[in-house]
Amino acid sequence: MKKKNGLSINWYLLSEYRKELFGLSIISIIVFHFFEDIQNNVDSGIIAKTASLYNSSFGSIGVEIFLFLSGIGLYFSLNKDDSVLQFYRKRIKRVVIPYMLYGAIFWFVKDIIILHTSFYSFVMDYTLLSFWINGNKNLWYIALIIILYLICPILYKLLNGNNRFRIINVILLVLLPICFLGIIDLFSHNIYDNIEIAVYRIPVFALGLYFGDKIMKKKALDKADIILMAFCVVLRGARVVGGVGDYIPPRVSVGFFSLPVVFVLAYLIKLCRLKKLNSFLSLAGMYSLELYMTHVTVRTIMNLSGLPTYKIYNYIICIAISVVLSVILNKVTNAIVKKKKQPDRLEV
Questions:
Q1: Which of 9, 146, 212, 280 has its CA 20 to 30 A from that of 49?
Q2: How far apart (Å, rounded) are the C-alpha atoms in residues 300 and 147?
Q3: 3: which strand partners?
Q4: Alpha carbons 294 and 284: distance in angstroms, whole number
Q5: Where are the domains of the chain?
Q6: In 81-134, which ranges are continuous DSSP H helix?
Q7: Contact by Cβ (8 Å): 302, 345
């Protein structure tokens, strides 16, 4: 095992600090959404320049980190238990039930009360079919993760450590979604715009499953890993600089860039050893899924209600409401599934 300054340079760091990393990912998503609102509504000033710099450099990298960690966690889960039925039961308890509870309220408020749309629109939104058909992106992540859960046992078989073709399989799983979207874009840019936010995230989820084997076996970084991370940094740099990099889809470059970023974050957490910070990040990670759902929906409702979230005081209110709702949603969900222990977000 390689060491530097007495600290292990090991893939297992991502498991050791998984809750903190989930916390950082949801915080990054919240920061990105604020900067996105700023960039879309403010033309000048220090905040606008900061937003532009952050978005061009990191973008929505918190989502990629979230999916990468989820892929790792699901690898752990399937490795421990061969029962596919049990796997699906856990996913229903941890994602589907919270969504069914909260989604019903959100879509009713948005569709029926605010927008005065039809019951048909409510049903389409609540079932998340409106994302895949019409590109309604309010809760696109839930629409994607449910599909990924359904096919995850198959992906696991393709990428587990005992599969001799796992390297070829992961390359195909990374390239196929990208190629698929490229073909879709040739025939219908509208359909491409509707689904690219989700489909471009499939490769990083597959990479999480792939590296789950290294993390479970507590392998140290090797030369191939370092070369891969360097490639990821160059790929993102090329996109930021432009030129040839303009041909690289932004979400693809961010997806690959999330690999070295999440590892560096884990290493920094280990280096800093700040108990209060770690506790805060762990707490945020514990509620990360609920925070995602409540944050994006409260943000939507506030903007529709004439309370624009590019204004800092409105955004602070948005965050405060989201935190309260996430705690309530977590408690209600746990009461329904009769679980006293908080869910381990590594297996989200």
A1: 280
A2: 24
A3: 8
A4: 13
A5: 5-337
A6: 84-91, 97-107, 119-126, 129-134
A7: no
Quick: pLDDT tens for 299-327. Answer: 999 999 999 999 999 999 999 999 999 99
pTM of the predicted model as reported, rounded to 2 decimal places: 0.90
Name the phi and psi angles at 127, rounded to 5.
Answer: -80, -5
Side chain identity at 288, as an amino acid letter? Answer: S
Mean pLDDT of the 245-253 span: 84
**End-to-end distance of the chain based on CA atoms, in angstroms?**
29
Strands (E) located in the chain? 3-4, 7-8
Helix 288-304 and helix 312-337, axial crossing angle in degrees, nearest 10: 130
CA 233 to chain centre: 19
Compute the distance between CA of residue 89 and CA of residue 166 in angstroms, rounded to an integer. 27
Q: Which among 303, 340, 249, 341 is positioned nearest to 37, based on CA atoms?
A: 303
Which ranges of 165-249 would DSSP assign to H, the alpha helix?
A: 166-187, 189-199, 202-216, 223-241
Q: Residue 247 — φ and ψ, nearest 5°?
A: -85, -5
Instruction: Report pLDDT digits (tens) over 36-91.
Output: 999 989 888 888 888 888 888 888 899 999 999 999 999 999 988 768 888 898 88
pLDDT at 261 over 50: yes
Q: Can you tell me the distance from the alpha carbon of 198 to that of 143, in angstroms, rounded to the nearest whole number?
A: 8
CA-based torsion, 10, 15, 20, 21: positive or negative:
positive
Query: How many helices and strands, by DSSP H and E, does the chain display?
Result: 17, 2
Calculate the alpha carbon distances from 232 to 75, 208, 237, 242, 277 in Å: 23, 15, 9, 15, 28
Coil, strand or helix at 221: coil
